Amino acid sequence: MSSIKTIVISGGTHGNELTGIKLFEKWSSHKECYADRCPSASIALVHTNIEASKICRRYADIDLNRSFSNKLLALNAPNAYEIRRAQELNQKYGPKGPQTKTDLIIDVHNTEANMGLCLILSTRDPFTMRASAELVCEFSTAHIYYQPEERGESPYFGTIAKADICLEVGPQNHGTIRADLFEQTEKIVIRYLELAEEWNRGVLQQKPKKKVSVFTQYKDIDYPRDPQKNILAMIHQNIQGKDYLEVKPGMPMFRTFDGKDVPYSGERSVWPIFIHEGSYYEKHIAMSLTLKTEEEW
Length: 297
Ligand SMILES: [Zn+2]
What we know:
globular, binds zinc ion, Aminopeptidase, 9-stranded mixed β-sheet
């Protein structure tokens, strides 16, 4: 991206993830918190899933953050609130594709997993890579998760912009808010804005690249289940809360209710994240496995 002229900072894409919602509320009435951090761009604050936030649930009808694929955005007269809202947001801040009005979306989420500040990139965009590399060096709990997506098919809100960061902050129970995580989130969003300003001035491009660990999406895995889809085992206590740590083949991954270990049966090491995310039970995801590489960004 040559320069960043329009930025959307959003919260409440999931209505029970309160950090982004509270950040939206605070900044909406205190423009001085963010406005002068990136004067070269226009910044919009957006509360994405308003109806779900009212009832403090992830979604009202369906998951808003799975509603931004080209297919759903083109759906005629949809019934689900979230598809209607996705189409409305796409009209206002998109349209998804090369003609989009928005250069950068920073979408703030929470997770119950112990992921700290997880910076999720869906493309190898030069600005989001460069800025995120700076920030993992500045924030001790920040990690880069690269989740490559075909942008047209991708259902995430951020994909209606040219580039996006999905910020996953945890561990925080849904429907609750933690002070430490709120303050870290506010700080890192401000730093993204400052780095966008540096990018627009050509300063960030001149800084030496940083060596960073990149966790790339490999595959999601489900809990062991019986034919009726009942869960047969829990996340193993050795990996509960240990996102980003290496799991080698044969190491315990799940634990049955009668105390037996279920080992990881893959053929190569993996680095699980989103371990035991509560809202992924319904998606049949126990954790997302990633592969770790060292790269210069
Ligand atoms: Zn979320």
